């Protein structure tokens, strides 16, 4: 459970840094989002999930 909460904390830190350091980039990305096809968004999300799982697997296996 501690690892899960640590992961959420890191997520919040990274999200906060994006909002604090590059709000204009975030705003432009939000404006572009509706123009990206749904299947491309889904594929990108699945790729990110897979990459995250692989990273955790390699880190925990080391």
From TrEMBL:
InterPro entries documented for this protein: DUF2065
Can you name this protein? Answer: DUF2065 domain-containing protein
Q: Which organism is it from?
A: Shinella curvata
Where would you find the membrane-spanning parts of this chain? 6-22, 43-59
Taxonomic path = Bacteria, Pseudomonadati, Pseudomonadota, Alphaproteobacteria, Hyphomicrobiales
**Swiss-Prot/TrEMBL keywords:** Membrane, Transmembrane, Transmembrane helix
Q: Write down the Pfam families for this protein, in alphabetical order.
A: DUF2065
